[in-house]
Design the sequence.
């Protein structure tokens, strides 16, 4: 195999090419609520997504790749599992089960909570929900009073569209009542975004036009 065709060496931690390693932005963060990220297959190799950085930074986070889940991918272990997803009526459809209400007593025991997060564009995450009956059966957590997204390298179509990392940090802050603990990870994410912004601003050698990166990893949450 010629040198031109040889695969580029990858970082064993973030699984990205060494030239695009994101480990410098990993910010180890302690948290009580377990996190399960369900990543759409098309997001796995998206270099600009935020799920991998989130996964490497959270102490109790598992990442599973898939589009349709016919059976739960979380264990039956006594924990209360809830889905980070809007609870607005616009998501209601004849073939989509109405989610159960989130029992208030669940929120009193953070260490017994498991938060499921869908990593994908709004359209992809919606399709994942439609194709996965176990997800439809979960109570939902909707985010409230959100600050603007710092994921400025991608155009959001509404103020309630955030990166997966941001949405998860805000959800954990809401559940655990400690926003300051997650701020270092959000600050590290700002550095990651700045790096992507600079890389996307490079000009194409042939056209002379700037080439902003196409980013994914957004989920929409209720405002």
Sequence:
């Amino acid at each position: 195999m010629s040198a031109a065709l040889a695969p580029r060496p990858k970082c064993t931690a973030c699984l990205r090419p060494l030239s695009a390693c994101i480990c410098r932005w990993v910010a180890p963060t302690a948290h009580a609520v377990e996190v399960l990220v369900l990543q759409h297959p098309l997001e796995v190799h998206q270099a600009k997504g935020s799920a991998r950085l989130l996964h490497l930074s959270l102490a109790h986070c598992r990442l599973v790749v898939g589009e349709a889940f016919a059976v739960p991918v979380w264990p039956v272990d006594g924990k209360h599992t809830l889905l980070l997803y809007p609870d607005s009526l616009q998501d209601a459809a004849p073939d989509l089960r109405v989610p159960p209400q989130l029992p208030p007593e669940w929120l009193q025991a953070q260490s017994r909570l498991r938060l499921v997060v869908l990593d994908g564009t709004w359209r992809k995450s919606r399709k994942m929900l439609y194709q996965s009956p176990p997800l439809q059966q979960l109570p939902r957590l909707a985010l409230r009073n959100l600050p603007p997204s710092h994921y400025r390298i991608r155009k959001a179509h509404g103020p309630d569209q955030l990166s997966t990392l941001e949405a998860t940090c805000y959800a954990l802050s809401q559940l655990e009542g400690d926003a300051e603990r997650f701020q270092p990870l959000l600050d590290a994410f700002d550095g990651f975004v700045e790096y992507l912004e600079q890389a996307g601003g490079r000009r194409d050698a042939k056209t002379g036009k700037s080439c902003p990166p196409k980013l994914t990893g957004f989920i929409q949450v209720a405002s």
Q: What stands out?
A: Confidence is low (pLDDT under 50) at residues 152-159, 202-223. The chain has one domain: 25-90+108-199+212-220. The longest helix spans residues 183-200. Strands lie at 34-39, 61-65, 80-84, 113-119, 140-141, 161-163, 218-220.
